[in-house]
Structures are given as C-alpha cells and as structure tokens.
C-alpha cells in the first residue's frame, strides 16, 4: 500500500475509534434499496410537503443560531477535508452502494453545499474509490453532516460507515488528492486512468458551475502534480491499469497451454472495455466477442484496433454469447446484476482443457456479476478487489518511483498552500485599501474646496490627485508587504496572520467577522430559496 493509502487507512481507524486525525433525505436516483442493490427509482417522502417545510425551517434556525454564535468560529479557519473510502479501506459491496454516477455529480455537489457547514464540495467516484472533498465552515459539524449525507444516500448506517471511512484535513487532504491524481494511491501504481477521472471532476464542475474557488484550484493543482509525476519519474512505464490487470488475472487463472486459445467475451464497449481489448491484443489474443447495447462503439474499436477479430453481439444475445465463452469480462454501467447464480447454472460446462471453470472477471462498480456465481461448481468470479494478486509484481521498483514522486507532490503542495494562505489576508488588504482611499478622497475634496475650482486648471487638479494617491500608496506599501504570504519570502503564515490581526485592531476593520457573516448570510439565503 502506498503512502496515501497508508495515511487514509490510519485515518479510517482513528475515525472508527472516535478520534480526530491530524492533518433531508431527498429523492435521489442513487439511493440503495433494501436488498443492497441500487435502484434508479425515487424515494417517497411519506411525511409529504409538511415534513419538508419543517426540515427547511429547522435548517434555517440552525444557521441563524450559527450566526449568533459566530464569535466562537472566528478562531477556526475553514477546513479542506476529504471523507471517503477506497479499495484500501472498504470492500466492493460497500463501495458500490456509495458510488455516484458521473451525470449525478452536480446534483450531489448541490446537496452537499446546501448542508449548513459546507461551503464547497466535489465528488470523485470511480470503481476503486468514492471520495468527497469539501471546504467546511466548522470541521466537526461539517464532517458529521457529510457522513450523515453519505449514510442517507447509501442506506448504510453511519456507525457501519465509520469502520471503513477515512478522513483527512487541510494539507493531509490535499496531499491525498495529489497522490490519487499521481496514481500513488491506486490499486495499480501509476495507472493513468485516475488522472483522467480527476480531470473529469474539473470539467464536470466547470460545466455545472458547481466547484468553489478552493476545490477548483486544488483539483487543478492535483492534475499538475499528476502530470509532473508521470513525466519526471517515469512511474507509468510498465504500469498496468485496472483493465490490463483484469486481462493478466484471467490469463493467470487459465491453463498456460490454452490461454491464447480461450474464447473471450467482453460485455460493455466503454473506456474500460476498450482497454480490455487493447490488452488482449498485447497478450496475443486474436479474437474477442463484444456485447454492447449499440454497434457504433464496437465499430469504433474495430476501426482503431486492426490486430484482432472483433465480433459484435447485441445485448439481447448476451447469455447466448456467454454460453460460448470461456472468459467473460464485464464492464458496464448497469445498476443491476447481469449475471446471478441462476444465470451461471444455466450456462453449459467448460471443457476440461480450459480447466472446466468459466471465468467471470468483473471490473464494474456497481458490480455486474453477483458473488454468488462462484457458488456454481463450474464458475468463478473475480472483481476489482481481486486484482491485488496481479499488482504485487515488481513492488520494489514501484516503491522507489513512489518515493521520487513524493518530492514532486511536496513541491506542488507547497505551491497550493501558499496560494491558499494568501487568501487569508485578501479581505484585510481590500478593507485597508478601501479605508485609506475613503480618507484620501475626503481630504482631497476638502483641499480642493479650500483652493477653489476657479483657481485650478485640469493639470493642477490631476497633480494634486496624483500626489494624494502617491502618499497613500507609499504609506500602505509597508503594511501590505507584511500581509503577503505567497511563499516568496521567509515570513511564516503565523507571522502574517499576527500582522493581519494587528491591522484589523488598529483600523477597526473587523474583516474576519465580516467574511464569516457574509458566508453565513449566503447559506441562510440559499436555504430560504
């Protein structure tokens, strides 16, 4: 397990123990049904509109109370946090209950940012992880609200979730995302698909307008870190993806003398499915049957990959195709199981030359093949959690590259934290500048009145205005320099914040309280609307 996975797993243990690591049940299409499988339907609200009105009133009341007690939060900086679970901390049956389809990310973000103590949010949901990144007004209350949201959306009790969740705060949360983007926290070290998925979070947020300033910048810097790690450490050289690991696993389980003659079936012609075909070609396979809802995607893969015979079968012929296959790869976005024990029992047996066992390699989350299929004598199921057997190879080389990558990640982390620290003093800089400009304008008006308009030409007036502006700029230069915290000098954040507090007191700027009240007001108005 890589550095990010280790810290995340440790944090999961701390969370389950109730310690803090360092560092409205609305209708929703991804709610889990009682049987544990997800349904695309909508949950009914038995209490009706009255219950919603009561919940809304309670939410507004809580925010108003938060506003009254704002002084208590003045000392607490908004925290960046990640709350989630991954292949390192939770089994696939739990991950699939929490998975959020990409088209539902904007809705999830909207629901999360409507929580009382959450300012910004992003969702990263893949086959190996489900992570929620937030900026929280209050650490404890914000985390509690997110965990409750996850519990309601998945149907998993919060107490059970806590046994598998990890939580990281501020620099630890940011480092984790940078490690994820770099492929250091992946089941397969250095795999490239996760970087594309992180990029998709940003694209999705830009299209929906859902990402806030901090989260947007953090994800963009994570993409930069991921690109640098891959370019500068060569970590992707020889690395396998989930799809290639799936192909490798299937070939490992087949008799060596027969693996290239095995009848291969792929169900699903999306990105993951396309990669399966690519890696089958690399292993020397010459034919694969592809089952997909439409023929267009299969034709596109056939056009791109000329070194293998690709036979298309429509979705209606899936079980007939499975009956003729020795290995079945599944990679679809189906919300329900494609193969159950009953389906597997109905399939004809496999020849003894192929080991007498039909292999189902399921790389979908939610899963396409039920675990019960392995109860059938002539069938075995492998899912994404079983790929660990493949990726243990060349562990030493991967760890060495991961150490090199950490240096790059630390550099990018320092840049992001310097940017975020600089945001702390922006309100004070603006208020101080505004305060000085008001005095300058007032005194300038008095001066011009005393001199008299008739005694001034345009050049003289402009010279006096420039003189007043120059004096203010010269006076403000020193204080503003001491509010800089962008990593360009040796001044620490604590020193800069001390200077900021001193200026706030001297000029009665009250920027911290004004900023906090502005945030709370925005939350109240959003809830009321």
Automatic annotation (TrEMBL):
Protein name as catalogued: Uncharacterized protein
Lineage: Eukaryota, Viridiplantae, Streptophyta, Embryophyta, Tracheophyta
């Amino acid at each position: 397990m890589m550095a990010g996975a280790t810290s995340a797993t440790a944090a999961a243990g701390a969370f389950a123990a109730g310690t803090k690591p360092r560092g409205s049940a609305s209708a929703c299409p991804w709610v889990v049904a009682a049987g544990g499988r997800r349904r695309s339907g909508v949950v009914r609200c038995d209490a009706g509109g009255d219950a919603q009105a009561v919940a809304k009133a309670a939410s507004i009341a809580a925010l108003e109370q938060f506003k009254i007690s704002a002084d208590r939060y003045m000392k607490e900086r908004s925290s960046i946090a990640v709350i989630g679970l991954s292949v390192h901390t939770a089994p696939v049956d739990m991950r699939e209950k929490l998975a959020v389809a990409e088209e539902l990310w904007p809705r999830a973000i909207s629901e999360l940012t409507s929580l009382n103590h959450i300012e910004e949010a992003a969702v990263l949901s893949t086959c190996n992880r489900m992570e929620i990144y937030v900026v929280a007004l209050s650490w404890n209350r914000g985390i509690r609200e997110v965990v409750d949201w996850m519990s309601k959306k998945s149907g998993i009790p919060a107490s059970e979730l806590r046994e598998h969740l990890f939580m990281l705060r501020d620099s630890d949360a940011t480092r984790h995302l940078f490690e994820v983007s770099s492929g250091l926290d992946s089941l397969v070290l250095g795999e490239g698909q996760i970087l594309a998925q992180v990029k998709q979070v940003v694209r999705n947020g830009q299209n929906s307008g859902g990402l806030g300033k901090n989260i947007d910048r953090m994800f963009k810097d994570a993409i930069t870190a991921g690109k640098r790690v891959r370019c500068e450490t060569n970590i992707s050289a020889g690395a396998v993806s989930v799809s290639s690991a799936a192909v490798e696993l299937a070939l490992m389980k087949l008799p060596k003398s027969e693996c290239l003659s095995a009848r291969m079936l792929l169900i699903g012609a999306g990105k993951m499915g396309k990669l399966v075909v690519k890696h089958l070609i690399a292993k020397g396979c010459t034919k694969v049957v592809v089952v997909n809802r439409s023929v267009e995607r299969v034709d596109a893969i056939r056009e791109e990959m000329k070194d293998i015979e690709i036979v298309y079968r429509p979705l209606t012929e899936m079980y007939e195709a499975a009956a003729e296959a020795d290995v079945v790869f599944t990679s679809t976005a189906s919300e329900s199981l494609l193969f159950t024990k009953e389906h597997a029992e109905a399939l004809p047996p496999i020849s003894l030359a192929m080991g007498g066992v039909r292999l189902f390699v399921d790389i979908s989350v939610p899963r396409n093949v039920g675990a019960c299929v392995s109860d059938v004598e002539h069938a075995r199921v492998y899912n994404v959690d079983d790929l660990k057997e493949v990726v243990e190879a060349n562990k030493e080389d991967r760890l060495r590259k991961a150490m090199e990558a950490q240096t790059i990640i630390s550099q990018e982390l320092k840049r992001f934290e310097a940017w975020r620290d600089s945001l702390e003093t922006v309100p004070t800089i603006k208020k101080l500048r505004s305060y000085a400009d008001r005095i300058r304008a007032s005194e300038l008006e008095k001066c011009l009145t005393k001199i008299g308009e008739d005694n001034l030409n345009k050049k003289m007036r402009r010279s006096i205005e420039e003189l007043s502006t120059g004096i203010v700029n010269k006076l403000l230069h020193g204080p503003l320099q001491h509010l800089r915290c962008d990593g360009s000098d040796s001044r620490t954040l604590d020193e800069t914040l001390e200077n900021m507090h001193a200026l706030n007191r001297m000029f009665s700027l009250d920027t911290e309280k004004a900023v906090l009240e502005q945030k709370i007001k925005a939350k109240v108005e959003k809830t009321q609307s």
